[in-house]
Specification:
single chain, seven-stranded mixed beta sheet, 18 helices
Amino acid sequence: MANDCYLGVDLGTSALKAVLVDRRQRLVGAADVTLAISRPKPGWSEQDPGDWWRAFLAACRKLRRRHPGPWRAIKAIGFSGQMHGVVLLDRTGKPVRPAILWNDNRAVGEARELNRTMPGLGHIAGVIAMASFTAPKMLWLKGHEPRRLAMASHLLAPKDYLRFRLSGRTVTDPCDAAGMLLIDEASRSWSSPIVAACGFDPAILPEIAEGSSPSASLSKSAGQELGLAPGTIIATGTGDAAAGAISIGAVNDGDGFVSLGTSAQYFVSTASYRPQPERLVHAYCHGLPRRWFQMAALLNGASPLAWMKRAFGIANLDTALAAVARATAAPSPLLFLPYLEGERTPHDDPLARAAFHGISPTTSRNEMLQAVLDGVALALADCQDVLSASGTVTTELSIIGGGTKSLYWMGLIAAALDRPLKLHEGSAFGSAFGAARLARLAVTGETPEEVCVKPRVSRLIRPDPRLAEAYRKKLPQFRALYLALRPLNRP
């Protein structure tokens, strides 16, 4: 038992990450594999589920090669993943079409129609219908691809496709079910009225099991492919936001953190279901039993920085950000709206787009990079105000995700939020680490309080009072720019 290890897998949008965690909750090894997004039409965003499977196998091969002893000691597997994706499988288990991702905005009209026909939807499902959620996308499929929808025998969230490939079982957890906008949050079960309003056969829905439950086991063929014992337990797992919370012990009422990956979340755990749909706050089931959370969800986290790197041909982003940090002592003179993919909280505006304001003949690349960093920080401050208006106030936050690699950016975010930010050990692999904790809970019988403890704080980033005041003055300008440009984004 002392040598037991747990495999945690996070299926993200831009990469799949996998970690090996030992009995003492030490990170034994980590691997990641890059994923590509297909955009066949403006506003569409898709991935091939087969690419997820190949990335999973590739990450497992890396870990198995680098850490053969701990790999053989794996006792359970846990999954985390991007939420809101539509994965439809036929009766043979093959995808009937590419997966429609969380940042796909084709179902704008369907979301509006669902809100019109079900005015109480947000109080049942935790938030009003938005184009990026599964339920409106199912309505879109019914109207635009009825033949493909008719072929579907299973509807899964992205992470659940990997478990299906490993076990043949179709299961999801309450958090990913919440992300589908098809669940009754209070009872943590499928909502018959919402499913009926979406017009598809409820038989295609998976079983719901809590994230820490042992919901499947490794098949013989999958075990042979991975070099693991058939029958190895697979935990249900949970959505990436909840898994990130579990990774840093944000599981009790009032625990809060910011997750900065491709998208971003401002997340606060709650002991009860507290919907605030009027403020576009997401009130969802947590990845552990009898827990919920409130979340402000941003479609644009670190992705605007990745866009800047690509668009400006920046060879090394770390070097470029270091140059910005040396040259800058204040927010950029420019304003940047980071809404490359539209935005959820606080706008519910899938048509919003990114924009720079204030460019002059003397504008430098450093000022534009700084403006991108500022824009994401200000968007998070916008969300913090929405949560505060909902009665959810935090005085100290953790921060996780790939964006935490830049300590300079973390300092800007701390200032914009005017909150200390705690960086934890292994924070860049947060959701995968949370998935490993769920794997452990699925086999050991321990309580969440015993396993989901807060990891050691590796750094505390305090807000610079001068920068905090500068961002306070900048936030009204940021909001005014969005409102001024909003009419221009309408068709």
